[in-house]
Amino acid sequence: MKRTLSILGSTGSIGQQTLKVAQACGHKVAAITVNRSVELAEAQARRFKPSLAVAVEEKAAADLRTRLADTGTKVLSGRGGLLEAASLSEADTVVTAIVGVAGLEPTLAAIECGKRIALANKETLVCAGELVMARAKERGAEIVPVDSEHSAIFQCLQGCRDKGAVRRLIITASGGPFYGKSCEELSLVTKAQALKHPNWAMGAKITIDSATLMNKGLEFIEAMRLYAMPPERIQIVVHRESIVHSLVEFEDGAILAQLGSADMCLPIQYALTWPERTPGPAKPLDLLSCPPLTFQKPDPDTFRCLGLALECAEKGGTSTAILNGANEAAVGLFLEDKIGFLDIPRLVERALEQVPAADRPSLDDILEADQAARGAVYDSVR
Ligand code: NDP
Ligand code: MG
């Protein structure tokens, strides 16, 4: 099945790989959005000829409008532009590849229009998962995960007629570049080391989240929301080789797993073509050249971000939005060389102590909690 895509965050790591899949598989691109990367956005627009291109930053949008003046692509700016791209009538599928909570409102806008959501933006489900999943159900919008672990689980659940037969979800974690290090060693790691993931090439924020293991904590919450699973029925195992992307254990003890090379093209493509499978650009996996597959326990005490995320997963309410907002702010400061690696969990923990959490939050409660958490982090480093 050929799809018509609106790609939110087309210049990022997932966005660019989505375009690679679209090119290889013949999906149409109706809209692209960026924050400010106009040069790449121009090249993408010339190649894929979308009817709409959005640059969120006003100045960038003005520049992009000049660059694309000789084409048929309309250029919009700001939050309004983003929401228009998310609800464009021409597109049947919205790929949410924006990083951070900035992806929440456009995802909701796409859900309102009943689009298929190929969901990469995990922060949306971490902050507002219950609300988003409920709205998607009401509007008949399909949410198909792009995150490799959740795609693996989604694939393992195909053909499962009785959801009650699922005993546990098992999420694999590479462990990141610092697996096995002590707190003392972690206090000395640099930004360059943290940005070097052993198995995956990704955007800067998720790469740092992978180094702190916050990414696995966010994914734990994402899995709870996507699959309506309580925390006690989700397990994280460290699997250094990143070949088994995640597993599902059933009541009879059978465990199904999805294996593949560390290539996001496959989960992106499956989110577009599900329930069908088509040939595509993903690197095949050669079992005979795989290293031995190993599985170990994670260490949420040393990797405190994981411990904090698991605590918030239990608490629910706005605590996960506070966790996420504080983490986005702290990772931003780390990437600007303003704080050290271990300041990330320290600042997130402090924000969780300072910002009161509420149960059964509305969208406004969630956005307020996010802002309060960011404020708490910035106040702590002032
Ligand atoms: P990148 O940082 O590589 O790309 C982010 C994209 O979003 C860029 O197009 C960027 O535009 C745009 N963007 C950034 N900030 C804003 C904003 N405030 N408003 C609107 N657009 C914005 O991220 P990734 O592709 O790595 O990740 C995207 C999402 O997918 C994240 O939620 C991540 O957790 C998830 N994910 C990523 C994986 C990966 O392999 N990369 C794997 C699994 C999940 P510009 O270029 O102009 O800055
Ligand atoms: Mg993942």
- Major sheet: order of its strands? 4-3-2-1-5-6-7
State mean pLDDT (0 to 100 scale).
Answer: 97
Largest sheet: 7 strands, parallel
Which structural class best describes the helix and strand composition? alpha/beta
| Beta-strand residue fraction | 5-15%
Give the low-confidence spans.
Answer: none
The share of residues in helices is 40-55%
Shape category:
globular
Radius of gyration: 20 Å
Distinct helical segment count: 16
Number of strands: 11
Please write the string of helix (H) and strand (E) elements: EHEHEHEHEHEHEHEHHHHEEEHHHHH
Identify every distinct bound molecule in the structure, by name, code or SMILES. Answer: NADPH dihydro-nicotinamide-adenine-dinucleotide phosphate, magnesium ion
> How many domains make up the coordinates?
2
Distance between the termini: 53 Å
Protein architecture, described:
- The strands form 2 sheets. A 7-stranded parallel β-sheet has the order 4-3-2-1-5-6-7, sandwiched between helices. Strands 9-8-10-11 form a 4-stranded mixed β-sheet, with helices on one face.
- It contains 16 helices and 11 strands.
- The protein has 382 residues and is an alpha/beta fold.
- The longest helix is centred in the last third of the chain and has 19 residues, at 363-381.
- It has helices at residues 13-25, 38-48, 58-67, 78-87, 104-112, 122-139, 148-156, 183-186, 191-194, 204-212, 214-227, 265-273, 304-315, 319-335, 343-354, 363-381; strands spanning 4-8, 28-34, 52-55, 74-77, 93-96, 116-119, 143-145, 166-173, 234-238, 244-250, 255-259.
- The radius of gyration is 20 Å and the shape is globular.
- The N and C termini lie far apart (53 Å).
- Helix 3 links the parallel strand 3 (52-55) and strand 4 (74-77).
- The protein folds into 2 domains: 4-145, Rossmann fold; 151-315, no CATH class.
